[in-house]
Amino acid sequence: MYQSTRRSLKNSQGYTLMEALFQVAVFVLFSHYLILIYFWISQMNNSLLSNEHVAWELFVQDVQKYFLNIEEITVSKRMDEVEIKQINSTDRRQLDRYGDIIRLQTNNKGYIAMIIGIKDAKFELNESFLTIKVEFQNGLKKERTFFVELYKE
Residue 71 — pLDDT band, cuts 50, 70, 90? Predict the structure, then answer.
């Protein structure tokens, strides 16, 4: 029995203080990288997927379909309203800023809120290009230019 305990003491390998300190150092470095990656992903989510960016892209997609088959388009003198008349339609659509929204009206009746939470909006028409400039309440500015081809008979 004496020999078996003596052999097991010789063959057993335990942790030394240096090994334990090395493992703690590796763990601390690994945890720092995880924290760094977490903050980087959080920053990317805030910059790329904020509500304003998503709302703007949805607004652009919605508005773009109204710029097809246009017979006439006009922008008001204050540059806060666009009026669109499409071919084969008696309806006139107005896209304008009202308070903190950009809304779509048909024949000045009712409205559909297209984008909410804006501070300022401007519409500019230069030949066949309509530019929409929007400033959100948090200071973010967005701008998009649309090609508007007028239908000619």
Answer: confident
